[in-house]
Amino acid sequence: AQSVTQLGSHVSVSEGALVLLRCNYxxxxxxxxxxxxxxxNQGLQLLLKYTSAATLVKGINGFEAEFKKSExxxxxxxxxxxxSDAAEYFCAVKAxxxxxxxxxxxxxxxxxxxxx
Amino acid sequence: NAGVxxxxxxxxxxxxxxxTLQCTQDMNHNYMYWxxxxxxxxxxxxYYSVGAGITDKGEVPNGYNVSRSTTEDxxxxxxxxxxxxxxxxxxxxxxxxxxxxxxxxxxxTQLSVL
Lengths: 116, 114
What we know:
Oligomer: heterodimer
Order of helices and strands of chain B: EEEEEEEEEEE
Structural class of chain B: mainly beta
Number of strands of chain A: 11
Distance between the termini of chain B: 36 Å
Number of helices of chain B: 0
Strand content of chain B: over 45%
Helix content of chain B: under 10%
Structural class of chain A: mainly beta
Largest sheet of chain B: 7 strands, mixed
Shape of chain B: globular
Largest interface: A-B, 25 and 25 residues
Order of helices and strands of chain A: EEEEEEEEEEE
Largest sheet of chain A: 6 strands, mixed
Shape of chain A: globular
């Protein structure tokens, strides 16, 4: 079964510093991987997705993630944190739900705080 | 376009009461999902649907029921509310073949069972 593990339930960075949120996956087949962001009192929205076309994936708001098969990782980065990046971030993997249908299996989330 | 609309936004139930969480979409997506979100636990899939008239269980279906009579609507029913069902519930939709390529989420229903 496909799954993802997010390392660190809470990460704090200073404004302007590098953001690094960690995600490792477990999958017996080439995975489709996603990062979603949840701002307070809102639903989740897609930041970026990896579907095997390119190992470095660029998303919205300056975020990017690199798929590393040798490390089974899909870490999310942003060179310079902004106050508006404070949110909870979820890594997810596309997993079989039923015959011919799929669902997303989510990690437990990492809450990002940005310190002014 | 409203996207995915969930009602109500907040609700307090007493143990044993029942209620229906409503989810409506105007995106003409075949795939619809109900997730629950508990602090520090991520999102868990309750039920999903691949189209009108077709539903199936997810990871945590006990205590819930769903129906999908139209493409637009996917209500989630709690028959006998229990404190363990205190959570934030999210409805999501997806298009494409097989679903789950990109999920569009509603803004959630915060439910407390006391």
